[in-house]
Write a structure and sequence with these properties.
transmembrane, single chain, mainly alpha, 9 helices, 69% helix
Length: 219
């Protein structure tokens, strides 16, 4: 058994800033929409302006331009959808669909024995796909990945119900609550599940030196 304390999943994943930033433009949309008498155009404009402001602030602080461009593109796409349909709730449609896709993708990754939590953590730790050689770690990642499936499914259910009911203000609130707070909870719970699935003598997310590729059937 290793004498070093195991790293928490939160320490490895990080990502708090990105989740927080992603929740700000939707708040801008709802605020603009309400302030202008439920005008979709004003709401869309406010969301884009807020997204640009957040992007400029992050770039000035040393943020990655590529990630910020992707975030801005997502906000612009959501705004264009709402402008095209004329329905304020459709600003959140792209977010709803992305969570549907994420839930299906994470579930499928578990079924095919390539749990995405393992893929992500493996890349962050510089292990690439070597973690799959450890049958115990593979099983642990699979169990913990179901927590992420549940996260995306919860968003789909809540967003879907509010979107179908046209509850724009509630969607804005849900978009904020189900961003970083839910992500933080998901990281904590999935980390607990992950480490609970590993025996005490296991080195944790760092691979044991004796791990072999023939430990995992079909690897």
């Amino acid at each position: 058994m290793s004498g070093e304390p195991r790293e928490s999943l939160a320490q490895i994943l990080g990502g708090r800033r990105g989740a927080l930033d992603a929740s700000i433009p939707p708040v801008g949309f709802v605020a603009g929409w309400l302030a202008a008498g439920q005008s979709v155009a004003w709401g869309a404009g406010a969301a884009v302006v807020v997204a640009i402001a957040v992007g400029v602030f992050r770039i000035a602080g040393g943020g990655k331009v590529r990630a910020l461009v992707v975030s801005l593109a997502a906000v612009v796409a959501a705004a264009l959808i709402a402008l095209h349909t004329g329905r304020a709730q459709d600003f959140f449609l792209l977010q709803l669909m992305s969570n549907v896709a994420s839930a299906l993708l994470w579930a499928a990754s578990i079924v095919v024995r390539w749990p995405l939590l393992g893929v992500v953590v493996g890349l962050l730790l510089g292990q690439k796909t070597r973690w799959r050689r450890d049958a115990v770690l593979l099983k642990a990642y699979s169990r913990a990945s179901w927590v992420w499936v549940l996260q995306y499914t919860l968003r789909v259910v809540i967003y879907g119900l509010l979107w179908s009911a046209g509850q724009v203000l509630a969607l804005g609130v849900a978009r904020t609550v189900l961003s970083w707070p839910l992500v933080a909870l998901t990281v904590a719970v999935s980390g607990w599940v992950l480490y609970r699935a590993l025996p005490p003598e296991h080195p944790g997310l760092r691979l044991a030196p004796e791990t072999r590729s023939d430990d995992v059937p079909g690897a």
